[in-house]
Amino acid sequence: MTEITRDVVIIGAGAAGLTAANELKKAGLSVAVLEARDRVGGRLHTDEIEGAMLEIGGQWVSPDQDALIDAVAELGLETFSRYRDGDSVYVGPDGQSHRFTGEMFPVSPETEKVIAEITERLDAMVAEIDPDRPWAHEKAKEWDSVTWDAWLRTQTDDDEAVRNLAFATGSAMLTKPTHTFSLLQSLLMAASAGSYSHLVDADFILDKRVVGGLQQVPLLLAERLGDDVYLEQPVRTLRWDTAASGAASEGVVAIADGMTVRARWAILAVPPVLYTRISFEPPMPRLHHQMHQHISMGFVIKVHAVYDTPFWREQGQSGTAFSPYEIVHEAYDNSNHGDPRGILVGFVADQNADDVFRLSPEERRERILRSLSHYYGDAAMSPSVYYESDWGVEEWTRGAYAASFDMGGLHRYGGDMRTPVGPMRFACSDIAGAGYQHVDGAIRMGRLAASEILAEARA
After folding, report:
1. Spatial separation of the C-alpha atoms in residues 305 and 312, rounded to whole Å
2. Domains and CATH numbers, the chain
């Protein structure tokens, strides 16, 4: 078994880990990045499926994501805007498709008024939330004790309004049923994007894409590290010294399948749900053992359907579609830059995702395409390429888009997620404030972990 010594060992070669490694290396510290997969990128993955380039993981860049925007520019990457010309489509409780323009769904005037009033109320609440410290709000415990669905239903008895308000943070972002997470968790999700209004505005939150795919960010970051990135090296054991800041301290020993790394510090740059895949010697503190049992991934299927042409554009449609009543709760024109083919991307989340995975692959495909046809017509039933991104089956991810707390967990444990444990630091989008659940948050957390280590190294 190979044995090396570095200043810092980083576990996970996603955007967070690679950002941290680059920051540390630029400052003069030696690093080793150990990645369990046979590729870098984590939840960013661009692949060619049957001749079509598909972004299987994260892909969008929004105007509030300063850290990601800066990284994309610094790496010399180009972006392009998501296609949005023409009508959007909404399928209501009557099962009929309705075309519309603008941000508001074509609901009754009464329902529109309710949605607008509650959105304004939520924006005011979100404005009081510090996304880095939501548990510090005076009402944090109260807001963490009521489910997102239950709170909305105390605001109105208009079911269509509740469904449309709920799915922005439920199916669309946290990808969990709205009765399984708290109002506080929902407010954090909105605060991470600047406001609830931002979160429900598809033209804002899903603004641009990177030419060639967003995975280029970690790929280019890994290139700069060269031989300091080691693939197919899942860390099985992490030995750590509680006196790691002392000059004579051992620090950490990371034992992977084919190598051992001795270092002064470690950064765990993987989702919290994967910490249990590592044997810690000595064990993590009791608080962390408890905390990690109250965090779980959501579940979403990202569906890619490729067509010879973007036929919906010829019908005057933008490709943007929503419905809290459909299996595919939202869908967009996801055609690639410079490619004449049309690509639709749709999302099936939470309970709907559970349900369709109980079907055969053939029946699941038929159900999903049928749902797309309710937005775009029968032409949607016959793609030339069909692919489902199923992150729930990924051994080194186990869900999507990111981890969140169960009821009551955020105010109880949130303040401890980033707290160092001996020589160990933590960095991933799952523990971010601004940019929570996004690549932007991963980059921010990578920079933060690196800065903490550098401050200690210089002390």
Report:
1. 13
2. 2-43+215-284+421-458 (3.50.50.60), 46-65+77-84+299-393 (3.90.660.10), 107-204 (1.10.405.10)
